[in-house]
Amino acid sequence: LVVRDAWWLGTVLGVVFAITALMLMAPRTAREAAVVFLLLVSPPVLLGIERANNDLVIFLLLALAAAALACSRPVSGAAGVLTLVLAAVLKFYPLAALGAVLVRRERLPRLALTLGVALALFAALWWMQREAFFRALAVMPRPDTLYAYGVRVLSISWTHSDGARLWLVSGLLLGIAGAWWLLWPARTAVARALPDEGTIVTAAVAGGACWLFCYGANTNYSYRAVLLLLVAPLWLQ
After folding, report:
1. Which of 45, 81, 153, 167 has the fewest CB atoms within 10 Å, counting from its CB?
2. At what angle do helices 108-128 and 130-139 cross, to 10 degrees?
3. pLDDT at 134 over 80
């Protein structure tokens, strides 16, 4: 693959990504279809599609792994774990998605063995390619801007808001209070509404874990929000 392959490869990647996202979210009503449409044409998702960013590849691998892990057969579970390891070798952060293995209803010793083998395999593959990994880390983008996302954006905002820090703190407190007011009374109903297993909840754990890991580990460009489309089916349900 060379530069001249970008146009057709990017097109194929964008189309497959959109089809997979639609299959996962599977809107059943006009209202759900409208929500799904707005998610797919939102600026972060369109940025990822326009750039044919490799987060789309990670999205597809996580969706495939979730479908495999949701299947009760041992072979499918192993295939799902290997897919997550492959995704982690490609872009580091999908290692957090190994938490989705815990959704499988298996005994604790077997789960521990599965996670241990997965981490050992990742470590071996990392060691074989460690020089390339360090070169990749050296050029990995770390956007230092208010338009990025990540926990460090709070300090960036504080640094660049000399005359508006009171507004910044007020908005942060208002947001926390609003989220608490909305979510705390419904916490029991939300917990009971979550399915115990299946592709939807497995995908949500994989995508949500990766997104949260990226939020805490580094500042990120907004196209990383494509990972939240793995959580969207659970929101819709």
Report:
1. 167
2. 80
3. yes
